Amino acid sequence: MIARHILLALSAATLASADTLINTLQQNGFGDFASIYQDADPSILSSVDAGSNMIIYASKNVQGTTNSTLRRRGSTTNTQIAAMSSVQKTASSSKKLRFKRHQADSSPAVYQSLLSDPEIVNLGPGVNQSLVERPVEDVPTVFAGAGKAVLVVGDDIAFDGGVIRPVDSLLEIPGSIGNTLALFPQLSNFTALLNQFNLLKPVSEAAGITVLAPEDSAFAAVDTSRLTDEQMVAILSQHVIVNYVGYSPRLKDGQVLNTLANGTVTVAVRDCGVYFNGAKVTAADVIVGNGVVHTVASVVGSEDGDDTQKPLPLALLPLLDLVFE
Ligand SMILES: *[C@@H]1O[C@H](CO)[C@@H](O)[C@H](O)[C@H]1NC(C)=O
Ligand SMILES: *[C@@H]1O[C@H](CO)[C@@H](O)[C@H](O)[C@H]1NC(C)=O
Ligand SMILES: *[C@@H]1O[C@H](CO)[C@@H](O)[C@H](O)[C@H]1NC(C)=O
Ligand SMILES: *[C@@H]1O[C@H](CO)[C@@H](O)[C@H](O)[C@H]1NC(C)=O
């Protein structure tokens, strides 16, 4: 019971010390970051201060920007950055909970942000742009757009609407699939093939998808010259999971997901990594406006190749069964 009293006393103390987001940012050395919110659409700041359990990913390193370059960047961009940096820890909690945690505590999670701009977000009705936070070598890491991850660099700081979580740089606003794939030189074959077979447009326009993008080394072992266009479309479409955004914290061992090729992929979660029909994920959680991209080491076949050591040519065999059926 004594412990309970201490807890109540502690939470009363936290309550008394909390303040608005802007004041808390300014008092903790995030003045430049605060000016992004001040320049953003006012609805963002009012949602944040009225919110509960918000997490604000705040950076002291606003990439060398001064207030004048922030202004030049434009209020639209600042609105997007502020909205993307403001996420809801729990969507449904009506109570204002304050939580403080040590920097190293980070269980994998998908958080929805305040970024809902339909020009750049297409995740299905009522779903805002989301991001992934998960530990990488014990450091809590936040995955956002452009394949860029930022690191959590300090303990949470409470404010009226939740906590400020210090990170080492600004989150990137997720772009389109096309713009994002173009940032990865190791995905040049996959990107070129999507273009060549007119799949980039439908894949970019679909709401809420997961793209499994094989690295160029996966295509080196494949002779695509003998395949018809129809077979190539079927192979490439097998790399697009439809109506499901498979952010890594959501993936479960044994999960079966539908692909654009009208096939399925089975997820395997092992100590050594995550696999889709035997193709190993090499970089997870590249966030895009209409879903997520994971890069994979081999071409994804049509069957569950539950063999984590499968070499590339074998990975293609079940696929060829599919296309020659
Ligand atoms: C930018 O503006 C904000 C609010 O107007 C102020 O608190 C902050 O100190 C300014 N930063 C610089 C680098 O001038
Ligand atoms: C989505 O974003 C809008 C606009 O910022 C916000 O009002 C709404 O609460 C957000 N939804 C969720 C579930 O966070
Ligand atoms: C992959 O890219 C290389 C270099 O541009 C090219 O020579 C090769 O034909 C491409 N492979 C496929 C399957 O498109
Ligand atoms: C998947 O099925 C739909 C409807 O039956 C069909 O229109 C489409 O061409 C199929 N896609 C592939 C890649 O086979």
TrEMBL record:
FAS1 domain: residues covered: 174-300
Cleavable signal peptide: 1-18
InterPro entries associated with the record: Adhesion/Biosynth-related, FAS1_dom_sf, FAS1_domain
GO biological process: macroautophagy
A cellular component term, taken from the record's GO annotations: fungal-type vacuole membrane
UniProt key word Ribosomal protein: no
Superkingdom of this protein's organism: Eukaryota
The entry's keywords: Signal
Protein name: FAS1 domain-containing protein
